[in-house]
Amino acid sequence: MTSTQSNSKGVAVITGSAQGIGRSIAIRLAVDGYDVVINDLESNKENLEEVKKEILADLPERRVLIVLGDVSVEEDVKGLIESAVKEFGNLNVFVANAGICKSKPLLETTSDDFESVLSVNVKGTFYSYKYAAQQMIAQGEGGRIIGASSLAGKKGHASLSAYCASKFAIRGLTQSAAIELGRNGITVNAYAPGTIQTPMLAGLAGSADYNDVYDEFKRLSSVGDLGTTQDVSSLVSYLVTPEARFITGQTITIDGGIHFD
Ligand SMILES: NC(=O)c1ccc[n+]([C@@H]2O[C@H](COP(=O)([O-])OP(=O)(O)OC[C@H]3O[C@@H](n4cnc5c(N)ncnc54)[C@H](O)[C@@H]3O)[C@@H](O)[C@H]2O)c1
Questions:
Q1: 69 lies in a domain?
Q2: What's the gap in Å between 73 CA and the centre of ligand 1?
Q3: Residues 199-226 pLDDT 10s
Q4: Is there a domain that residue 213 lies in?
């Protein structure tokens, strides 16, 4: 993979990278040698600026571009990729990480709840895969596309019907895109984390005591622990390497051994 900067491994775009798993992926890919384009909602701009500062403090030779935008808006995703290519000359890796979760029993889930979750998680990933692939095909050098599914994309969970539906959909998108794009040298995979300590997970604990919720998650896992954002970013780090060329269409569970495919 090449980019216009000779000491760079390429250009990686990571959506929803102001915090949590996306932030960790952006930092890890920068450490791995990628110039990174970090994206999030306008409301999370300050955290994005912190991520940029943190990367440049340790890696002043890296290039980091902030592009604000909402992945559920088609023009924003197109604009994100256009900005990446305009500034850095290329697109080699796209991580469609941005996602939202709403926890409500089925009977209390409104049409608006359902639509908003599917709009960010499914439409956002669809736009990301489509426009990233379009750019990578035009470049003719292959690429790596990665989406965010979940343990909730492998099995249903109470009070997570909209979220589960959205994360199951990521698996379908990932498999279909992998089949269509494989002969262009583009692999498409997704990560399916279990319980990773992030602001999203803390939000899910709601008014319950975090420690009780975390203890329950630990009890469910085979390794007796919660995951860290680094557990997910190290998987992504491998999936973007040339060595991972034969892995495509997979939604890889990373949950400490709760669910077995
Ligand atoms: N934390 C977990 O345990 C866990 C488990 C399984 C899957 N996931 C998935 O991993 C991904 C990251 O999760 P996280 O735990 O880091 O969540 P998080 O809430 O901590 O971070 C998600 C980021 O996405 C951003 N975002 C939300 N909507 C957006 C939009 N429309 N456009 C652009 N950015 C948007 C948020 O502002 C936030 O910065 C999500 O897709 C999530 O569903 C997380």
A1: yes
A2: 16
A3: 888 887 766 677 777 888 899 999 999 9
A4: no
